[in-house]
Every structure is written in C-alpha cells, then in structure tokens.
UniProtKB/TrEMBL annotation:
Pfam family for this entry, one: NAD_binding_2
Signal peptide as annotated in the record: none
Gene3D superfamilies: N-(1-d-carboxylethyl)-l-norvaline Dehydrogenase, domain 2, NAD(P)-binding Rossmann-like Domain
GO terms for MF: NAD binding; NADP binding; oxidoreductase activity
UniProt domain 3-hydroxyisobutyrate dehydrogenase-like NAD-binding: residue ranges: 167-286
Entry's family note: Belongs to the HIBADH-related family.
Keyword list, A-Z: NAD, Oxidoreductase
Record: active site: 173
Protein name listed in UniProt: 3-hydroxyisobutyrate dehydrogenase
Amino acid sequence: MSAHGQRHIGVIGAGAMGLPIAARLHASGARVLVADPFPAALERVRDAGMTGTADPADAAACELVVVMVAAPAQLLSLLEAGPFEQGSAVRTAVVTATVGPLAIREFAERLAERGIDVLDAPVTGGVAGARDGTLTLMGAGGEAAIAHATSALAPVGSVRAVGTRPGDGQSVKLVNNLLSSVHAVAASEALRFARALDLDPMAIHPLLTSGAANSWMVGDRYPRMAQPRDEREFNTATAIFAKDTSLIGDTAQALGTAVPMLELARHVFQQAVQLGWEREDDSCIADLPTSATAAATL
C-alpha cells in the first residue's frame, strides 16, 4: 500500500475481462494502472477515469499486478519486458488468464528467483461476473500470495484455494472449461433439436432447468441462444472458447489422454471463428449451419 493506505495495483490487459476487473478495483478506491498495447483499449481505460499505459513495465511501481492476457506467449513475454525485473516494487503477480499449467509454472519459477510471489488464479464467471464483482478466482500458490490476493482483489470476487502449486489453478480451469464448452455446444444442439420438433425452446426451458438436463449453460446460454441474434446481450467472445478449447486439446494430447467430446466442441467453436464470428457472443454457435456442426461428428 501507499503511505496513505491506498493500494497500488497494476492490471495488464484491458480486454473484455481486464477492463471491468480494473474498473472494479478503481471504484473500490485503489490506485490502478492499466497496461495494454492497443490505443483503442487505452482510450476506454482513460474514459473510465483510470491511468493507462502501453508499456507493462510501468507497473513495476505497483504492489500487486493482475495479468489478464490472451495467450501463454504473452504471459512469458512479461518476464523480459514487464514489471517484474529485480528491484520492482511488485510483491505478488496474480495471473487470472487461462494460459495452461506449463506456462504458469515457468512464469512462477522465474519470478520466484526475483522474490515475487505468483498466484495462479484463472477466473470463472464471465464478463458479467467481472463487471459485478462476483468472479471466482481458482487460486493456487503459497499462503502469502493467496492472502495478498484475497485482500486486494475482494472487489473483483472471491479467491477459492485449489492448490499450493502454481499450475493447479490452471489445471482446474481447464477441467472447468472442458465441461463448460461441451455443455454450451450441447445446449445449442438441444435448442436446434427442439425447433426441429416444432417446440418453443423457451416454453420448455423451465422444464429443462428443473431436472437432470440442467447445467449452468442451459440456465445461462440457452435463453440467449433462443433470442434473435441481433438482440442478444454480449457476454463472452466466441474467440475465448475457441482459444480455450484448443489449449485443452493440446494439453490433453501432450498428456496422452483422450478428450473426444472436447474435440467436437473445439470444432464447433472453430467453425464459428472461421465464419468471422470471433467477436460475437459465444451463444452464436446456435446459429451455425447444420452442415458445419454435423461435420464435427465425422
């Protein structure tokens, strides 16, 4: 904290998740610095009343840095061009992005050599959770890192300890995302099937959510999938599921374990991206042509 008791927090990545996370911290009274290489993102940061920079190294003066980048390579690039050099004021780096266990372990090992704690804390709850401060952070790391993040990031959500080793959080998140992606595709398939049977998808929704057919995706995504495409509220970009399903598939292959349902889901999200829908809400998979989804079963 500063001499006046105000937390100084850096957020690297001002995308769909990073920006509302930063805004929650800013609204709580923290002094927030947001780093993002894109001018449009920095403009949104400044419009929200926060300080923005294109150089993540500027966050070296912060006590805690939240990392919400898109890919493992971006995380590892911060080892050389980020705020974590020797002499940095950073005590804890909290990686809230989904980057896989291998990348986070390398990142944590390198920062440990510099005296910086790493909390592996991928999030679940989506954009709405980030905006409302109800995210769940799947925290894996030492007691000091968990305690620091739990206190500093309380405006963002709750830290659920899932392990003591960086990498455990990412592993839990990959399991979480495997189920989420398969359930989302199943919900879209059920919606199309209901329409083919000449049923009103929303008329049967209360029944679906009251029994064994229910899942979080049936409760959350299915109603959006049932809406006209131009009336849907944006929550999570299709590109996120396309990226995460690829990460899960690649990790499973490296481990020698089969994930056939995941591979079907990966194909569906990739089809949506190939149609140019990567920036649309992921409920758009319900609008894929039947031929595109049928190809996933071949």
